[in-house]
Design brief:
about 30% helix, alpha/beta, binds flavin-adenine dinucleotide, globular, 8-stranded mixed beta sheet, FAD/NAD(P)-binding domain, single chain
């Protein structure tokens, strides 16, 4: 159906991108201004963006998230309340890295020293008071015996190798108070279910936004043109920086901000375990302590016969390019080292994310390059009270998270409600 035929080709508000931010923006706007007509335009064939749940063991099997999985800052995380309201199950099992969380490494005599060195690193970033921003590599001493562990853990957080990302930005990161919980049905299921009541057009890519006319904004899409009074743009920074959406008149400040807040990379790889009784449930293991090129492994999430491997930074990109077999070989070698050689006979590859090559996303979560942390505000600023921006990268402190994305969507919706 050509988009022109949709409501006669005219709409009050078009929200571009049905990820956590776009869905939250549309839902918030529906409740603030039921008088407005709203459409969510999504380039891919599903709602959720980087929130995506799969069921590789069958519809009744465990729900696994290829993207966001943890409700960080769960007590103050807007998605926690949404999950409970729509009848999904919030699982409060302590995350492996929090108090009460289970770690295979806990029995290791060096584990405390490694954890203390990593905690010191994050404290140094929090306390950094240099006038000039620097890169995270600069706050790790080359002589630190735990530097490889620090590089690995920091890459899990930012998605980037340390020399690429800003100390000030990491110091500002604050997911909010509260522990980390999960949604049993999956974070992706949560976002998609919440979006169900929003009029949505899938498989439609917005390619141009002409905001030169005084009385409307003209959207060009792969299915034709649509006029809107206001537009919320909730796509990733890599999509904006690649200028997959052309603005007329151009918005060079936005493009520059997006380019300097690129997406880092983290990928998940799920491994099937034939003999799950060999492994403890919901327990965390690191593949290596002495090499930054390591996976983090969550053994039997929710008790399922599965291991969830997590790779970040350059390693994640290399394994994504090499494919499933390479990721499996890498993981098996690391897991044998940690769990014993025999474990290999019980493992087989199940599913893997490939966020760098997702065409309408292009990575996992945003980090700031040195000096770019304040550009999150530039990215988030509305243009002439008609173009509004949302998405995790717009959040000053909760960037890189799905609840940060939610909050930026809610703010954009409030601004639209006021402006129209
Ligand atoms: C492996 C991994 C693990 C993660 N773990 C966590 C976690 O545990 N907890 C957490 O809080 N966060 C986590 N995150 C981050 C979280 O998933 C993201 O921050 C959040 O989902 C981003 O939402 P968004 O709405 O900003 O962007 P997106 O989800 O990228 O949504 C943007 C949408 O816009 C669409 N789009 C793009 N271009 C166009 C166009 N031209 N026209 C129309 N539509 C377009 C895209 O298809 C996409 O659906 C993780 C991410 C990954 C990848």
């Amino acid at each position: 159906m050509p988009i022109e035929s949709w409501r006669g080709g005219e709409i009050d508000v078009a929200v571009i991108g049905a990820g956590a931010a776009g869905v939250a923006a549309a839902r918030q706007l529906q409740s603030l201004r039921p008088d407005l007509s709203i459409v969510l335009l999504e380039a891919s064939s599903r709602v959720g963006g980087r929130a995506r749940t799969i069921h590789p063991l069958g519809a009744d099997g465990v729900a696994l998230d290829l993207g966001c999985g943890w409700l960080h800052g769960a007590r103050t995380n807007e998605w926690t309340g949404v999950a409970e309201k729509i009848g999904l199950t919030v699982d409060r099992t302590p995350a492996p890295w929090s108090d009460g969380g289970r770690q295979l490494e806990a029995a290791d005599p060096d584990a405390k020293a490694a954890a203390a060195a990593t905690a010191d690193f994050f404290e140094r970033a929090d306390a950094y008071d240099g006038v000039v921003d620097t890169d995270l590599g600069a706050i790790v001493a080359p002589s630190d015996p735990w530097r490889e562990r620090i590089h690995a853990v920091a890459a899990f957080v930012t998605g980037a190798e340390l020399p690429k990302s800003s100390v000030i930005d990491l110091g500002r990161y604050d997911p909010g108070a509260g522990p980390d919980w999960r949604v049993r049905e999956g974070y992706g299921t949560l976002v998609a279910t919440y979006g169900q009541s929003v009029p949505t057009v899938l498989d439609v890519e917005v390619t141009r936004i002409d905001h030169s006319p005084a009385d409307h904004i003209l959207l060009s899409t792969t299915f034709g043109e649509l006029k809107a009074r206001a537009v919320i743009i909730a796509v990733s920074t890599n999509v904006l920086a690649a200028e997959r959406i052309q603005f007329w008149p151009p918005l060079p400040d936005k493009i520059e901000a997006a380019a300097r807040l690129p997406l880092g990379l983290a990928n998940k790889f799920f491994i099937r375990v034939e003999r799950p009784e060999l492994l403890p449930t919901d327990t965390h293991a690191m593949g290596s302590r002495l090499d930054r090129r390591t996976g983090a492994y969550q053994l039997r999430p929710f008790g399922a016969p599965v291991i969830e491997a997590y790779f970040a930074g350059d390693l994640a990109l290399d394994l994504e390019r090499q494919g499933l077999d390479a990721a499996f070989a890498f993981s098996v070698e690391q897991l044998q080292h940690v769990l014993g050689a025999d474990i290999a006979t019980t493992l087989s590859p199940l599913a893997m994310s490939g966020w760098a090559s997702e065409p309408f996303v292009g990575g996992s979560y945003s980090y700031a390059t040195p000096g770019a942390s304040d550009l999150r505000g530039v990215l988030a600023a509305p243009c002439n009270d008609r173009l509004f921006f949302a998405g995790e990268a717009c959040s000053r402190a909760r960037y890189s998270t799905a609840h940060g994305a939610y909050e930026t969507g809610a703010v954009a919706a409030q601004s639209v409600a006021k402006a129209l």
